[in-house]
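Slide 14.
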Amino acid sequence: MKKNITINLCGRLYQIDEDAYELLSHYTDTLRNYFKKQEGGEETADDIEARIAELFDDLKSNGIEAITIEHVQGVIEQIGKVEEIADENAEYAGKAGFSANTGNKKPLPTKKFFRDSQNKVLAGVLSGCANYFGGSANGWRWGFVLLSVLWIVFDGIFGTILGVMVLPIILVSIPFAFLPLLIYLLVAIFNPETKTAEDVLMMRGKEVNPQNLSEVVQGVDLSKEKKNGISFWDILLGVICVGLSTALTIGLIVALCFFVAFVVASESMADSWWNLYLTEDVDAIFIPAIVSGVLLLVSIAILLYCSIHAAASSFGKTPAMKGKQRLMWFILWVVSVVGFIGNTIYAVAQLAKTQTTRWNTEQAAWKKEHTHFGFVFNDDDWNFFKNGDWELVKAEGIDRYTYNGEYMTGDFTRYLDACAGHNPYAYQAEREVIVEPGIYRLSAAVRADNDESFIFVEEKDTTGQVSFFNESVQIPNYGTQIGNIWETIGLEQGFYQSDDPSYLNDPVLKELVGRISKIDKDKIVEANGSHGYGWSYVYIDSIKVENPAKLIYGVKVNNTNKQTGIGFFSATDFVLEKIGELGKK
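Slide 15: predicted structure.
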């Protein structure tokens, strides 16, 4: 129900409703603005107001208790419009919104850009453009959305291409992508919004006269001309909204199914021992995931409701939402989306935290289980060391201590090995055995691509406290080809010639190579495209043990000159053999 107001007009009191009062105020203010500059204009305006009071008295005498807007419109028609009362007044015409009346010329409206407060979604800028430049407000809105998307895509492609050459261009192109939104924001800040009925008429290019003012007060949309059917833009918007509603309905159903499935699965796995890890993960994210799911459903439901309402409004089935309704739904949607994103991020963080904690716990347990000699072994390395009675003494800059690779015959086997590319590393693996007095020899099949790798042997008393003998021999640096084993066989079979074969005539080397079977020699010759794999025999001879003692032998990198080695080494087939008795040759 409209509120009634008591007004004093020419010393008489009248009850008048709010809409009627606004229209009457516009009319009387317009009259006084027009006549105030004219000689005797005040008296003229007073006379007209007195005439209005008389007409109101007539209405009261006919039993009218409260004057409505229809009554005011009737009074204005009887008295006449301002432009009909006056012959000509340019000053008023400029202020009121139409040109001077001369003769029978019709007033010319003055159009001005305003933000439309009656038909706005956000700030009313695009609706104001539709009123000022023509077209549908929805058409301007969809056009602006399309322009913004195309602008962002173009800016992204152009900025990426140029940004490959100059990085600062990317930093400029990112804010430049939001230029349409910036322009919209500036227009929203610096252009006024329609606040009065006169603003609405000036925005639409309509005459500011009592009749149009009354229509504005009654809520008549003067921006739409009378026409048959629905506009193209309304049909397009309706079709888009129907498609969007369908997609959102499907999305809502799918999201709801996932939500229910998550809750049911969480309950079903609560007591399941076989998926303990999955249960831990679900427990960590259950509450934030539930909240995120509810907020996602709410956000989809809001979009679904608004799209259905927009479709019905476009086809004329229901009135369009008011600005306050749109703002309310928009705020609720933003809150639900922000809440969904926030809870999802929190859930992911909790899941990552749980998995990281579990990973660290598992890694700590694994390291504890696989730590031997103060070093962490993988299963293959440890099995090799344990089965061969090897002990790892030093390991720096590497993460493996053996390798399953090609042997001298081309077959694959596991052996002591270390590799760190071009990075420095240190390594020492050794084995110990108690021996009786005698003369011993240590030999091994080895290869390397550095000059810092050695095999060694050390004699200590049986307590391991006193050292009697310590010697090391460098592993030849052949890399992964040739090797003295391949060279010795080549000289033996006549397919290889050496400029300095003297060292290949070493009787111990010949003895060691002579132990290789004929079949394996053929494999060695043909291995790696008949280039061999770089394997050589090295040995430490004439190890004299005077008393029962402990011999410690193995392989080391950088242990002699304290410098870090690079590249790789490989060592296998260590043989410690007694070759003679003391006092005998």
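Speaker note: The chain has 18 helices and 15 strands.
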